[in-house]
Design goal:
It is a single chain. The chain folds into two domains: 110 residues, no CATH class; 148 residues, YojJ-like (1, CATH 3.40.1700. The strands form two sheets. It has a seven-stranded mixed beta sheet with strand order 3-5-4-2-6-7-8, with helices on both faces. A two-stranded antiparallel ribbon has the order 1-9. The protein contains eleven helices and nine strands. By secondary structure, it is an alpha+beta fold. The protein is 47% helix and 16% strand. It is elongated, with a radius of gyration of 23 Å. Strand 4 and strand 5 form a beta hairpin.
Length: 274
Amino acid sequence: MLASQFELLSYKFTFINLLDLVLVVFLSFQLFKLLKGSLAFNILIGLLTIYIFWLAVRYFEMPLMANVLGQFAQVGIIAVLIVFQQEIRKFLLVIGNSSLLGENKKWWNIFPWKWKIQQTFHTPFDEIVEACRELAAQKTGAIIVFPITSEMKFIASSGELMDSRISKRLLMAIFNKTSPLHDGAVIISNGKIKAANCVLPVSENPAIINKYGLRHLAGIGITELTDAICLVVSEEKGAISFVIEGKVEEGLLAEEMIDKLNAAFSHEMVSIGK
């Protein structure tokens, strides 16, 4: 029984097995980075604790406890899908965007002569941040979303499609309290304002629901479900928040926010095909 349950002790380090081990470690590390600091991380630790305890009671031949914990193990996949649906959605979004089968990607683009420098779009982050500063001084609420791997066409369709050139005056006009577009979010992608007055999913994290207002919860929610970055202007405090991966950074200087946005978007990468 001991040999059958702990086969790692007799692991044969052939090239394929070594590659297998490296891939498992790499995926585990990526999973740890994805979940670290989130509510789901504590849940994952709880599930792993139950699984290890189940292996222990099976080894020491405790049939009653093994049967009880075995019921959890039998529905483990379903439980993981339910508990980690947001994290799985984000993981699949990254995989799908990187895959050769993703949108606008063809299998023949793997050949070197199809490689090229990815087209970059100049986004005037300084102008956007300056607009947020003026809105904050006026205590006018605003939320601006910067998607990284997707234009968020589904989210954009919930508001008014624009595809407009970015300008400080236009952003000020959109979020003006008398504007019919001021309540929703603005989506900025590929150097343009893609949509305004968009409806965003609200975070359901019980640890922060009572800490932030609805606008901040919307910014946190969209960054939990996607890889987007958000700027949120508080109507009550007149402050600007930088939101990434569900985490809110407050009190940043304008230069710091511009540097963070430039680091995330303003760089050239070698891409495969178009």
